[in-house]
């Protein structure tokens, strides 16, 4: 089954808006076993929309359009679709009630613009929108199912998951499938793929494997379509068990996990608390940890010790340590971690000190050199990392590596 | 002049990679006065690439393709282009020397794969790549200029600016233009556009204005194409002067500015230092400030006081203050700012305490309520903000608002 994704919006073509909807839909449709052949962004005008429909209907099993459904006059998608699919715009009672409920919950009454949003082409199936006033539409013609949804990302995403997937299941027969992700960190892609050469060669033919690298992790995706559901999931679980024995604690999570959610889970489960002492990461670790709702349960806080004075007077690093070994050194980062642990009265602390660049490097300690330490009451360990030359990437990698070292340290203690 | 942007890559169609190249090129081409009619992503295979060429050549003045130029076998773009434009792949001495220099600088010798990268279609103009081994190509056919560049974002971006723009200027006659951006914060879009109704009505016909909103700011873009360069820039400068008198210090920057670069400039110019005390923003302000190279010159550090204990024992907030007024209150945030200023021995400190959500709200202080204070030796001010219900957006808005309040405070003192 092939699919095409179309975004309508001049703001995308002028580079004002990044087309994240396309990326979301590409992921979701691939996971549903569609083969996405093409993604496009086109202008918010009748000729462009009509041309896109002509190039799509009859050529793809599924076409998803986002955007162009707002109440203002420059959003003309609904009218073009209604004409194209031989319908007429009529007021839909379900949509009217949805819109009414939506605006009333915000303390407003129904106005003319809202009322216009209840007009829906007579030839479509409704795709209800739980988060906004623009309803989605599903049409069918020449063996193509075409879906139109609003472009506001959080409305569109929830609609896709909650109201569109059940409709798609009525129109398409999806093969059985199993897709799982394994998240790794601390091992470069070239070393990882070398380590997994034998593993890859032995993967059954019905299962595909892909590496998805980012500065913060490398994900391994294992996927199978078709066959008995239970069997393919067992096959993939067996492969994951194998990966665990090959990669050990380079693996930090699975599927929707990330470092902050895994840390959150481990800290909550074990009722432990944590603190940070950040130099080159400048607060990024604290920021990441506190993106998780309820993180105050285990994160007491941290110190951004960007100056030597902050390291000395707040964290209690010895002046002599910095003089003798430098701010980016095993000795300093160990004292930072111990200082943060005591200061914030926590079970575990993580500390980072590195040279993010572009300046500050030396022959001994080139830009990218980063020391990370983690401490508990009875043990402190430290490790040096050599990142690259780009400041922003170094900061991201240092923060992720610190969270990973902290996670492994805690898991070893529990 | 119309343009089309094509990204080649299965990783985009499967949702593994967000197509940021398209967004970059859309911005740049719009600024060059091209009208981008279409952006697409297609698969890394001969039929898809050939179809895209057939749909583009003769229909657009400019087509830019990114991706599909790596040394591995699944990157077949170069061969397809060479055939399509009636050329043959021949070793290009300039590219060979570029590649050689590039790999030797990294301590490697030329291998078979690198040598293949020096093969270039005989019918193209070269677009040199200062940052990698894949050269770009420019072809011309049926009044369409087609450019192919590698997909690695930082290679492509530098190529576009440094080597492609001069080539495009040989093929296209660009109109004169003037584009300027004014960055505002602290005023919702609806209020902003209301405040600027009269201003907008009086804008000369040759100048366009657009609002570009994000959670962290609202940019106003003023642009003019055609006419005498000096005249249109003067027109836009006059409009900016008008905006300054209407919007005052809701404006925090221009063009490529952001809050951290403007703060960096102001702090460096005045040789002042700054510190942070962050509760709900969890370290994001520190992270943002330290993204700027050389920020250690003015940023001494900060405290992430996520728990009441951290507020009391590190920042010196009085226990009684928190008991009486709560952690999210004017009194607490003022004591946080004063505490951070003294603790980190700086000229200015900024403190944030808010309810990011989803839990922790009350009737009195609903989710989104955020107190921000800034302090110097002789003055401390505090302000309350009411953000929305989404945790991640609240954190971003709180951090940006805190940096904005800090900036205004410093500017008033200087």
Descriptive report:
The structure is a homodimer of 414-residue chains. Chain A is an alpha/beta fold. The first copy, chain A, folds into three domains: 170 residues, MoaB/Mog-like domain (Molybdenum Cofactor Biosythetic Enzyme, Chain A, 3-Layer(aba) Sandwich); 78 residues, Alpha-Beta Plaits; 154 residues, Maf protein, CATH 3.90.950. In chain A, 41% of the residues lie in helices and 24% in strands. Chain A is built from 16 helices and 17 strands. In chain A, the strands form four sheets. A six-stranded mixed sheet of chain A has the order 2-1-3-8-7-6, with helices on both faces. In chain A, strands 14-13-15-16-17 form a five-stranded mixed sheet, sandwiched between helices. In chain A, helix 3 packs across helix 4 and helix 11 packs parallel to helix 16. The longest helix of chain A has 23 residues. Chain A is elongated. The two termini of chain A are 47 Å apart. The model of chain A has no long low-confidence stretch (mean pLDDT 94). Chains A and B meet through helix 2, strand 2, helix 12, strand 14 and helix 13 of A and helix 2, strand 2, helix 12, strand 14 and helix 13 of B.
Put the structure in a nutshell.
Two copies of one chain form a homodimer. By secondary structure, chain A is of the alpha/beta class.
Which stretches of chain A of 5+ consecutive residues score pLDDT under 50? Answer: none
CATH topological fold name of the largest domain in chain A = Molybdenum Cofactor Biosythetic Enzyme, Chain A
| Rounded mean pLDDT score of chain A | 94
Counting H and I runs of at least 4 residues, what is the number of helices of chain A?
16
Residue share in β-strands of chain A: 15-25%
Largest sheet of chain A: 6 strands, mixed
Coarse structural class of chain A: alpha/beta
Level-1 CATH class name of the largest domain in chain A: Alpha Beta
What's the oligomerization state?
homodimer
CATH H level of the largest domain in chain A: which superfamily?
Answer: MoaB/Mog-like domain
Named at the architecture level, the CATH assignment of the largest domain in chain A is: 3-Layer(aba) Sandwich
Strand order of the largest sheet of chain A: 2-1-3-8-7-6
Total strand segments of chain A: 17
Helix content of chain A: 40-55%
Computed Rg of chain A: 26 Å
